[in-house]
Amino acid sequence: MSPPYKGDVLNSEQVEHKKDSPPFPQVVTLTEAWQEIPDGWALPPGADIRMDLELQKSFARLLPSKPVSDLDHDKRRIAEARQALATGDIKAARKAAGLVRGRKDQQAIEAEIDAAAAGVII
């Protein structure tokens, strides 16, 4: 039998399945850590994939929610804001907090600044 061409309709006799595998591939649930992908399993959209040619294995993970450079940037700005708060410089703390790119991180540090400005200790 010749191989199917794009657009050909296949009947059930033409499709080969392994006896112990379902007719449709199972989808791997990924985390941000690299994990080995079993043969025949499908990956969700947006997966970060690497192949080890020596081991002949595939690995995948979820892409980090923010690029590493953004995470480092935010950590530095939050540290600057907290250092300014420690010295009582509310204006410098607000300036550093305004440069934080992550919305949740920015909201959290702004809440700390607002509490410090009001004289509340968190």
Overall description:
There is one protein chain. By secondary structure, the protein is of the alpha+beta class. The chain has two domains: 13-63, no CATH class; 68-118, no CATH class. 36% of the residues lie in helices and 12% in strands. The chain has helices at 68-86, 90-98, 103-118; strands spanning 35-37, 47-52, 57-62. Strands 1-3-2 form a three-stranded antiparallel sheet, with no helix packed on it. A hairpin with a 4-residue loop joins strand 2 (47-52) and strand 3 (57-62). The longest helix is centred in the middle third of the chain and has 19 residues, at 68-86. The chain is elongated and about 65 Å long.
Summarize the structure.
The chain is of the alpha+beta class. The protein contains three helices and three strands; from the N terminus they run βββααα. The chain has a three-stranded antiparallel sheet, with no helix packed on it.
Number of spatially distinct domains? 2
Q: Please tally the β strands and state the result.
A: 3
> Which series of helices and strands comes N to C?
EEEHHH
Mean pLDDT equals 79
SSE layout:
Blueprint: E1 35-37, E2 47-52, E3 57-62, H1 68-86, H2 90-98, H3 103-118
Antiparallel strand pairs: 1-3, 2-3
Helix pairs in contact: 1-2, 1-3, 2-3
